[in-house]
Design a protein that fits this description.
Elements lengths: L2 H7 L7 E9 L5 H16 L8 E7 L10 E7 L2 H9 L1 H11 L3 E10 L1
Antiparallel strand pairs: 1-3, 1-4, 2-3
Length: 115
C-alpha cells in the first residue's frame, strides 16, 4: 500500500474512488509480443504515481493465470470522483495511454466505485 493511500485511509470519513480496468490485447500479437506490451503498460501506468494529483495508488497486474480472459488489469485509487475525472485528461496519463495502452488493446472494461 502506498504512503499516500495509507494516509488517506486514516482520515475520518474518507471515501476514495477505485478505478478498475481489464484489457484484452489484440489477437494479432504473439504471446512474446503481448508480454512486451504488458511490461510497457505496467511501467508506463505505474510511473504516474506521484505525478497526478489525487492519485493515491496505481497497480497494473500482468501475471495472469491460464484461466484468465483478460491480459492485464489496472487497480487505481483516487481521493474522489473529481480526481478520477482529472486523471482521465491529465497530460501524463494521456501520453502513457496513447503510446503504451490504446494502440494494442482489443477490448477494455472499466468499473469505478466508491470504497
Amino acid at each position: 500500500m502506498s504512503a499516500p493511500l495509507r494516509q488517506y485511509m486514516n482520515k475520518k470519513g474518507a471515501h476514495m474512488v477505485r478505478h478498475i480496468i481489464l484489457w484484452q490485447l489484440k489477437d494479432e500479437y504473439s504471446e512474446e509480443r503481448k508480454q512486451e506490451i504488458r511490461r510497457g503498460m505496467k511501467e508506463g501506468l505505474e510511473s504516474l504515481q506521484g505525478k497526478v494529483p489525487g492519485l493515491l495508488s496505481i497497480t497494473v497486474k500482468t501475471d495472469r493465470l491460464a484461466s484468465s480472459s483478460a491480459d492485464a488489469m489496472l487497480d487505481a485509487a483516487f481521493t474522489d470522483e473529481d480526481a478520477l475525472k482529472a486523471y482521465r485528461v491529465h497530460p501524463e496519463h494521456v501520453k502513457v495511454a496513447d503510446s503504451r495502452v490504446r494502440p494494442f488493446v482489443k477490448t477494455r472494461v472499466c468499473m469505478d466505485y466508491h470504497e
